[in-house]
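Supplementary Note 3. Input sequence used for the single-chain structure prediction.
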Amino acid sequence: MAHPAFRAAAVRVRTPATSANLGPGFDALGLALGLYDDVVVRVADAGLHVDIAGEGADTLPRDERNLLIRTLRTAFDALGGQPRGLEVVCANRIPHGRGLGSSSAAICAGLVAARAVTTGGEAKLDDDALLELAAEIEGHPDNVAACLLGGFTLAWGEGGSVRAIRMDPSPEVTPVVFVPAEPLATETARGLLPRTVPHVDAATNAGRAALLVEALTRRPELLLPATEDRLHQEYRASAMPESMDLVNRLRADGVPAVISGAGPTVLALAEEGAADKISRLAGDGWTANRLDLDTAGTCVLPLAGAGAAQ
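The predicted structure, written as discrete structure tokens, is reproduced below.
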């Protein structure tokens, strides 16, 4: 492969927050949410300059250790070669370590930005290849599928490849996220999962996951039973007891609530008219945000206004 040529102009990429699992859809189902990170990438003559505002501004590395930079490097290798230099500006709004897909957002931003600044990038790295590479970097496909495609996604492995389909969630559903002050590492949450589960629990989850596809796309009145989980949430409860308590309290009140991804954020899938009321139910120690559903996924946007928070 010949060394690629790069565009001189900067590109702006927007990536949505995501919630994976959604109760029973462990490592398979994902939902894109209307909370966004913006990244601006420009190929420079030499060196690496990284500027970060918002979430992670005080903690994220500004060198080759940064996940976004590592992803850019991986993507440029796949596209044929590295640029001489990079200037990267990040406006982060997705909370880190809360189960809202911040790492997937960084990965998808890096892949799409690298492709956008590379001449002929889409021919060299198509959408299927983007998903494969994103899932390889992240380690599982549920968040990255929703982040790339937007909407409600189902991702799976087939013959050594990763595939995903996108569905339109019902417009009657309004996500409400309850974000706690303290993060939880995904590795910690995954480490609590057992190697085996009872057959009856696996069968129940299979049925609930299938029902969730119908409930979230066409019949939201079924969301409460459709979001029941027996595979992962209770096993992780010891790492986030306040989150599980909130899930149980909301569900007892008839609200479809789940742990978002690996937690500790709680996601409620509210009816439009009840979203504001539900957002007031958590009490102290939580930041409640009513969000839109994202339908666009990761996209390249006009550069003007890249720093504006939306």
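Residues 306-310 have pLDDT under 50 and may be disordered. The two ends are 40 Å apart (CA to CA).
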